[in-house]
Amino acid sequence: MDYSKTLRLPQTEFPMRGNLPQKEPQFVDLWQDKDLYNKRIEKRKKEGAPRFVLHDGPPYANGKIHIGHALNKTLKDIIVRYKYMAGYMANYVPGWDTHGLPIEYAVLKDSGE
Asked: How many CB atoms lie within 10 A of CB 50?
């Protein structure tokens, strides 16, 4: 028996699947074409909004990457987005380059020097 005929489901034009891998590039192109990121920054500047700066360090400069790094980046993203929605001029500035120092240290450590 086909039980789908026994359910009173709403009729909609939306597809059953989101197809995000195919749609995400289209969204990114739209956002870049409209320059939405810079427009929102300019809007806050015109409003004279107070600045909020969260200095973000390198993603994993002192060891192997682990789940804590993902949590750290996620929490920082949430904080910056919250501050922007609260009316602050809060644009994201990624971490700085450590000029290869952690990699050089790891190579020296592995080679025994």
From this structure: 12
